[in-house]
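Researcher: Structure prediction, please.
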Amino acid sequence: MSSPPQSRVTRHASRGSVPDLLHLIAERAARLGGRPVRFMEVCGTHTMAMFRSGIRAMLPPNVKLLSGPGCPVCVTPMGMVDAALAIARRPGVCLATFGDMVRVPGSASSLERAKAEGADVRMVYSPLDALKLAEAEPRRTVVFFAIGFETTTPAVAATVAYARDRGLANMLFLVANKVIPPAMEAILAGGEVKLDGFLCPGHVSVITGSAIYEPLAANYRVPCVVTGFEAEDILEGIAMLLLQVVEADPKVEIQYKRWVHPEGNAKARERVDEVFRPCDAAWRGLGTIPMSGLELRPELRAHDALEALGIEVPPELENPGCSCGEVLRGLIEPPECPLFAGRCTPATPVGPCMVSTEGSCAAYYKYGER
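Model: Predicted structure follows.
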């Protein structure tokens, strides 16, 4: 038995026009002799971009795109939402987080509802906004509910470091940040869905570099292409994946070469490593994935909201009937959920995939099938 091919990174020439790329995709798909292939995008921005541009409808019948766990709001487990609710209801505490998280349902309520009931919940655009609140109100405890992947984690790390350096004891962090590659591997290792390739996230890869996907290509023989967000970027990424499938040559390639390099952003990663260390983390729909989350280093635990306030994260639950977990694993498409567009809509969301602007259900509801 031959050993798996060594993964390598290559760069492609400038992308073509949409008609040219669609012709190239059709040509390469035809070389598969009708064999169906399934590619997963693991970035919510990709999901929305594909729906806005109608890319799914343009592809040959044997090429299918699946949405994966690429929305940080969507993969944040309900237990963390409940912990945030418990924090927000503490007297003298202000909980700040991004707008989408405010509307995500917990087991019995949401931060939006808690705010309506009198809790001090603030929507912010940056962790630095939360830090300004802590500076302005030194007698109030400010907790930033931090979510996100590698793209936004450096900003959170810089904010933690600033709070440490300025001695802001009233600035705490509820950390739910995660890293993408372990989730990609969990989907492959789980074997629930057969994948023929990944459209790897562009924004994440600016920070991480493309080399982090090499073990996936080498160990699971799955093609990986780091892709940008314009229609031409996505179509070229699909064409590159198809060529790898046709040639049975799985590797890591960079389509988004305008911004992504194999080594990524070393300074950003250094700042993250200064503040955080890897830990096991729960993902909605995927369970606990080893070393897929981040926690504050021991010397920074004074800024850990759970420890400082004595809050425990409740056991995981799911809203009855919600199929967000299956959607995030690529097992079903949103319209297959019995609640989709009926009980669950953007105005009355049951699960986070309908709340988030990067959620698959929200994308299907706004642009696709109902």
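Model: The chain has 18 helices and twelve strands.
Researcher: Thanks, that helps.
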